[in-house]
Amino acid sequence: MAIRQMRIPIQGLEDAGKVIPLEEALRQQEGVIWARVNFAAQEVIVLYDPASFRLSRILQMVRSQGYEVALPQWPADSQALRTRLQALGIPVGAGLAGAALLVGLYLSLVTLAQGWGHALELLWEDRWLVGAIAAGFGIQVGLYVYLRRLRACPVNPHAATAMTAAGTGTSSLAMVGCCAHHVTDALPLLGLTAAATLLNQYRIPFMVVGIGMNGVGILWMGRALLRIRQRMGPRMDPRRSG
Q1: How many domains does the chain have?
Q2: C-alpha distances out from residue 178 to 55, 134, 143, Å
Q3: Which residue range(s) make up the domain with 40?
Q4: What is the mean pLDDT of the chain?
Q5: CB neighbourhood size of 225 (10 A)
Q6: In whole angstroms, what is the distance from residue 227 CA to residue 152 CA?
C-alpha cells in the first residue's frame, strides 16, 4: 500500500484543547492512516492511502468543526503526473489532426464526385471502415510525435520517420479505396477510366493493407516506447529537451 503525506493549513484554531478532538475526527475519515494537528504551525498533517482518500471529505469535516482551510499543495508525484499529462497534449493533438486529415480526404473525394450532402451520408455508411483507418493512423502519428519529444530518445529517427511515412501513404491509399465505390462512376467522366477500374477492383486489398500497415506501425512504436521506458526508468521525461 502506497502511503502519502499532506499538509493542510487551517485558520481559527485558537484553543489548544480542541487539538485532540480534531485529530480523532480526522483519523476516523476513510483513507486516513494517521493525522496530527500542529497547533503552533496552524496546520493538519495527514498520512493517507491514495486508493480510498478523498480530500473533499477532509476539508468538509474540518470546516464543520468551525475552522477555515486552504487547499494544500499536492504531493510531488501528483505534480509530476500533471506535468506528464500536459506534455501529452501535443502528441494527442497531432494524432487527432492526422485522423481528421484522413477523414477530410474521404469527404473531399466524395464531395468532388457527388456533393457535400451525399458525402456526409456515405461517411456515416462507411463509418466503421473510415473510423478504423483514421484511428489507426492517428494513433501512429501520436506515438511518433511522442517518441520524437522524449529526452535522449534511443530510437533511430530515420526508422521512425520511414515507418510513419509508410503509414501515411498506405492510410491515404486505404481511404481512397474506402470511398472508391462512391466515386468510380464519376472518374470515367474525368478521363480516368483506368483509375476507376483499378480502385473498384482492389478496394478491399487497399483497405486491408492500410489497416495492416497502421497496426505494424503502432506495434513498432509501442515496442520502441517500451524500450525507452526500460532504459530510462524514472528518468523518463516526455517534455521537450532544451
Answers
A1: 2
A2: 51, 11, 24
A3: 4-73
A4: 70
A5: 17
A6: 12
